[in-house]
Amino acid sequence: MPNPPKRPETTAFGRESRKLRRSLPLRPTQEEIGELVNVGRSYISQIENGSAQCREDFAMRLGKVLDGITDPRHTGEGTRLHKAWLKYIKPLKLQEDEHRFPQEYRNYPRAESSAVMARCYVTKVVNGLFQTEAYASAMLNSPEDVKARMDRKRIFERTPLPQVSMIMDEAVLYTRVGSDKVMYDQITELMEMIDKGLAIIQVLRPVYIPHLRTDFAIASQADGRQMIYCPYQTGGVTSTDPARVAECAAIWVKIQAEALSPRESYDFMGKVRDELYGPS
């Protein structure tokens, strides 16, 4: 199978990798470097000639070797090659991830990934940010779509941890996505996220809230900028319009006031999980 076309960014990253390897005292070969990071010579060659686009974790591993770092506690973060990955390859990854989403949604995952506060209200299914891989797989059409959804969960790896909240209609817990096991594990995941302090999750029992028409999500940045996403059947709308954002934020306050408390929600989720999806 032919290699994918080279891009200026991967070529620049490869050039940096080759330069670092050749600057080492013993000028190790591609094969020798590959052995140190548990890959074949051909993959190192593809990276250096710009025909391969490696993952960040591999760039960090390779960066440790190329910087001569032997401390097993060092992650490789901040090495010269890792910095090159952040400069050249990360923007490509963001572009590719965005293209997996509908046109009108593409800007929202980027806003969400850098948000200091991410809030969402859902009526039918668990928001993608909180989904297990099995739950997402039962909904989506391809492994690539599932991976893109799982990549969103990196927000929970950030330091400091952003404030993430989801309010879901009670119906979400009763909407069977996949098997009983998928649902059991998904609800367990939500409860564990609460236990770990990763997110605030609340359940909204049936109640009328004026002007509430659809699901929505709000991503808020440290500088005060905010973006909303409101889905509909075959698409949705993303907006940074202050009036629209303010309307969603005001509705969020009303929803939160009517929802069960986090502790009540936790207990309610556990009850539904055990009664509907637990072993009979």
Architecture per CATH nomenclature, i.e. the level-2 architecture of the largest domain: 2-Layer Sandwich
Q: Number of domains in the coordinates? A: 2
Radius of gyration: 22 Å
Mean pLDDT: 89
Low-confidence stretches: 99-105
Outline, from the CA principal axes?
Answer: elongated
Beta-strand percentage?
Answer: 5-15%
CATH topology of the largest domain: Endonuclease, Chain A
Helix percent band: 40-55%
- How are strands sequenced across the largest beta sheet? 3-2-1-4-5-6
- Class from secondary-structure proportions: alpha/beta
CATH class category of the largest domain: Alpha Beta
Number of helices: 12
Number of strands: 6
Can you summarize the main beta sheet? Answer: 6 strands, mixed
Output the helix-strand order: HHHHHHEHHEHHEEEEHH
Distance between the termini: 50 Å
Description:
- This protein is an alpha/beta fold.
- It has two domains: 8-97, 434 Repressor (Amino-terminal Domain) (Orthogonal Bundle); 102-277, Endonuclease, Chain A (2-Layer Sandwich), CATH 3.30.870.
- 49% of the residues lie in helices and 12% in strands.
- It contains twelve helices and six strands.
- The protein has helices at 8-23, 30-36, 41-49, 56-66, 80-98, 107-113, 133-139, 143-151, 171-174, 180-195, 242-258, 262-277, and strands at residues 117-122, 163-169, 200-204, 216-220, 226-232, 235-239.
- Strands 3-2-1-4-5-6 form a six-stranded mixed sheet, with helices on both faces.
- Strand 5 (226-232) and strand 6 (235-239) form a beta hairpin.
- Helix 2 crosses helix 3 (41-49).
- The longest helix has 19 residues, at 80-98.
- The protein is elongated.
- The model is unreliable at 99-105 (pLDDT under 50).
